[in-house]
Amino acid sequence: MAAPPESPDAEYAALAENYDRDWAEYNRATADRTLRVLRNRTSQPGRTLDVGCGTGVMLQDLAEHGANAVGLDRSAEMLAAARNRLRRTPLVRSDAAALPFPDETFDAAVTNSALHYADDPAACVRELARVVRPGGVVVWTDWDGGALTTRGVLLWLRITRRPLGRTLTASAMAEALGDAGLNDVRVERWRHGLLWGLATASGRKPG
Question: Which superfamily, per CATH, for 8-204?
Fold first, then answer.
C-alpha cells in the first residue's frame, strides 16, 4: 500500500528554516504581482489581511507601503519565521477556511500561493470576501491549473505523494470570486520562469 501524502503542515514545518532562501525568486515575483494588482485597485491599502502569509515577505512590503497589515497562516514554523522579520505586525495561526475575524474587518485581503492546498478554495475565497468591508478588494494569486506546465507540476506532486488540495484554473478562480459576491472581477494569467503558470484574480465587494 502506498504511503499517504505528507500533510501541508508537515511539509512547511520542514521547509520553514530555509524557505526564504530556497524560494526567494518565486516569492518575490508572486508578491510583487499580487501587490501591484492591489495598488492598482485601491489608492490606500488600509487594514489588510494576508492569508497564507508564510514567512512574511508580502506582509513586510505591505507594512513598508503604509498598510495596517495582519498575517494569517496555519504553520507555526512559518509564522515563527515571519515574527523574526516583523516584530510588530499581528500574526494569527488559523485556517483560511474559517477566518477568526468578524465580518467587514478589513479594507483588503490578499492571498498568494496558498489556496491550492485547500480542498475547497472557493470556500476560502468566500471567507476572504466575508471579512472585507463594502468597497474593499480581494486579490488572489495562485497556480493556474489550466497552464500546461502547472498541470505537469500537479502530476509530479500526485505521483510523489506530496501535499496538495485543489488547484483551480484562472477562469475558475475568477468564477469563485464572483460566486463569493465580488464584482468587477479581473484575472491575469502570467508565468514565472519556465515552470510556473500562475494567475492573479481580483474583485471588489459591492457597497
Answer: Vaccinia Virus protein VP39 (3.40.50.150)
